[in-house]
Amino acid sequence: MKKIVIVGGGAGGLELATRLGQKLGKYGLAEVTLIDRNRTHLWKPLLHEVVSGSLDTGLEAISYRAHSSENHYYFRMGSLCGLDKEKRQLILAPLEDHHGKQILQQRFIDYDYLVLAIGASSNDFGNASVHEHCYRLDSAQEAEDFHLTFLNRFMQYSEENCLNMDPETPCENTSEDLSDTVTISIVGAGATGVELAAELYQAVDQLERFGIREIHHSSLEVNLIEAADRILPALSESVSGKAAQTLEEQGVKILCNTMVQEVHANSLQTSSGEIHSDLIVWAAGIKAAEFLSRLGLQTNRIHQVEIEATLLAKGEERIFAIGDCCSFTPEGAQRPVPPTAQAAHQMAKLCADNLIAIVKRKPLQTFEYYDHGTLVSLGPFKTLGQLLNQMIKRKWQVEGKLAYWLYASLYRQHQLALYGGRKFFWIWLSSLLEKRIKPKLKLY
Ligand SMILES: Cc1cc2nc3c(=O)[nH]c(=O)nc-3n(C[C@H](O)[C@H](O)[C@H](O)COP(=O)(O)OP(=O)(O)OC[C@H]3O[C@@H](n4cnc5c(N)ncnc54)[C@H](O)[C@@H]3O)c2cc1C
Predict the structure, then answer these.
(1) 328 exposed, middle or buried (CB, 10 Å; 0-12, 13-18, 19+)?
(2) Mutation test of ligand 1: which of 139, 340, 369 has the most ligand atoms closer than 8 Å to its C-beta?
(3) Which domains does the chain have, with CATH numbers?
(4) Ligand 1 center to residue 317 CA distance, Å?
């Protein structure tokens, strides 16, 4: 029986493992194994909601172990660190527990076909000060860490500004009297930075509603710093202009044409001068894991594996790569397929079809990317973006409730791919009920 190993259970890898488990594993046609360095999966586009506290990872994350047992694939926890192409073995680093104690030694896993789906992380462009002083949204742990720091900073702010500590007596300060604001700088005004900026203001509004004393909308100052001449440079000028207007109405300070040169603990040195900041989030560009360039595969300058239209790594017959960790430029296109959940989803689908074709000795198909457009959430019912009709190759702008429902449907599609129709229905229903009974903000 063929051994298919998928490394990385993210937006692409988990959908692929589910599909292969259902189509091959269930019928004993192949042994499908998913490897991930974490125990649970959280769809990455939800991370900015984890930061603001509007999403609780405990409720939303999926246990790989439980999911694998229901979908006929095996799950092994581990972190890929090397590859022996001759022996068709991948190498997993020794596994440590949460105290740093080694619980498993280095392991070697055999494969007949390997799929790399390990995603990418934010690109610090080799600037060591970014690594030292910035928060990044590359994993649920990092997003939760930032969320706690955010809550703690506002707790400090509330205590510092509330002169009267008697809970029975209201504070006498007005927002104008308050000594300072909490300043958060976000570097990079792509979709991630823009959505995070909007989410943070919503979180502060919620803190105010929960009665945390002396917290007002104006207690937060967000600087959104972008090297290009406008925010959301990948979208049309009109979408970018509308998003900028919505953010500025919230209070976001947008600084375009601004290059960050150096980051310090509480400030950023930029091409337009120094900016004080209590917290700094880095959301500028992506890069794949550096070790990918040492595996003997063809990679580009940001370490993404170069792939053919069949999704096989260039020059390889048994190694596929999908999602953010690979680079593919369709014939005639000027730019590679963008690193989005939408692309990872489409690649996962074709990769599953091609692996099934291999098992059934049929020819491989080639990947065609369908760009359905981009939507950016700037708060409930403040979603906007542009959709692309592939048939007539025309873009049109959407906003308001329609855009909000389309945006929410992206995650629902991912859930549908993972759970199938019946279970998805119950999950959707329970999330509606939870929204009604739980606080709108995770306060811990
Ligand atoms: C805050 C944020 C918001 C976003 N919003 C959107 C959006 O609205 N729409 C959109 O289309 N895209 C969005 N994206 C981009 C989207 O999340 C990614 O393009 C998508 O998740 C890529 O899928 P993937 O499967 O390639 O990688 P990922 O989803 O990143 O999954 C990678 C998996 O590999 C695992 N892994 C990593 N290294 C190893 C290793 N060495 N060994 C074992 N396992 C490993 C990780 O634990 C993870 O489970 C957003 C990204 C971020 C960060």
Answers:
(1) buried
(2) 340
(3) 2-120+288-370 (3.50.50.100), 128-161+175-282 (3.50.50.60), 375-437 (no CATH)
(4) 25
